[in-house]
Amino acid sequence: MNTLFARTVCAPLAVATLAMSMPAPAAAGVVGTEDMLRDAASASTVPIDRDTLRALLDRDDVRSRLEALGVDPRAARDRVDALTDDEVGRLAGQVEQLPAGGASVIGVLFAVFVILLITDILGLTRIFPFTRPIR
Amino acid sequence: MAVAGGAPRRRAARACLGACVVACLAACAASGPVPGAAGRSAVPSVSGSPPPRGAAAAFPDPLRLAGVPFVSQPDWQCGPASLAMAMAAAGRDVPVQTLAASAFVPGLKGALQAEMLAATRRQGLLATELAPSLDALRAELAGGLPVIVLQNLGLPAFPRWHYAVLIGVDLARGDVLLHSGAVASDTMPLATFERTWARAGRWAMVVTPPARLAASADEARAARAVVGLERVDSAGAAAGWEAMVARWPAGRIARFARGNARLARGDAPGAAEDYRAALATDPAFADAWNNLARALAAQGDPAGALGAADRAVALGGVRADTYRATRAGLGP
Description:
The complex is a heterodimer of chains A (135) and B (332).
Chain A: H1 2-17, H2 33-41, H3 50-57, H4 60-68, H5 73-81, H6 85-97, H7 105-110, H8 113-127
Chain B: H1 6-14, E1 45-47, E2 63-66, H2 78-89, H3 96-103, H4 113-121, E3 126-129, H5 134-142, E4 147-152, E5 161-170, E6 175-180, E7 183-189, H6 190-199, E8 204-208, H7 219-230, H8 234-247, H9 252-264, H10 268-281, H11 286-298, H12 302-315, H13 320-328
Antiparallel strand pairs in B: 1-2, 2-5, 3-8, 4-5, 4-8, 5-6, 6-7
Helix pairs in contact in B: 2-3, 7-8, 8-9, 9-10, 10-11, 11-12, 11-13, 12-13
């Protein structure tokens, strides 16, 4: 399910948003504290584009999934805004470890609210190799 | 002391099959005695003999917090209820429904760990993830903070995720005390607690006012807590950075982070001072050289800025492009 979603929705979306979705540093040229800490915490960093995240929350399919989960789509924006990039990235990393098919207990639990957002991010990271850590 | 049998505990577990993320290690700062909250009956007090001086990891035993308010969880809402208890202990009464609106996902019948942290920040409080060790939990209890813990009360293959609030540890007797589900001051054998906690990745968090750092947090953990708060509450975060510099006056992270906060406020000289302090501790801190260059340029010291930018470029690293852009913006 996630893979299908990523392929059919995220990939085209990612391409469409490429032009407007370059990850931007906090202030011009200043290395932000979050960025500095993310390095120290782990080598696997997933740059998060906040504008893309917010745009996702405005999409009809995402909104209907959120409503099905009992989450107010307008409130979801504030909830996502209160997460650090590192936390969003950490969730993104976990999505990859989930069993494929999404039928497991964990998969179901995990499924929607964050996953919808995260699979999109993963779609981005798979498409744009520059977001992979270079080692 | 209330002794709860297995049945209530199982009922509590069923009522809170949290949609907690697997093996997501996250911790929040729990609340405790708060400056300005003196006289609040809800502020916990620690009982137990004082720790022997000089022994690093020696805390009193048993440790038990009195006065942590109990909030019985509505269906499935162990996460929001645990947050409400920790916040009340920090001197902030927040209704469970309010917290559920920011941390609970009805369709998942649970709360994600990351959202437990985020919901805390949205109340202007610091959420600190603890190191995954019993000593860290005991350090927080010894400092008067209840600890929100994530447990897997089921089996690894059939998880029953559950958030509870740890309010006591008795090593000698081998049990712990939890506000859990529908049961206040529930006793659980220490071995059972450690097993269920380990199955949930030993995730634990504490809630504190912004100016109070978790006792067990190292510089990086404390900074992750404050930088999360900064996302929604820059004034609260500023108090957190001050507390960090007070605890780690020469800390590379503390000084770098406060420097960034100062620079964002337009205090370039103050920022430069902090970056220099961070660099005195770690001269190979390229990010700090880069930001020092920005701060010096902002206060009209192009020569100093150029020198700092050159250092950043020479050191390089994953953000070498940023350093080169800084250098290029300062002229040939």
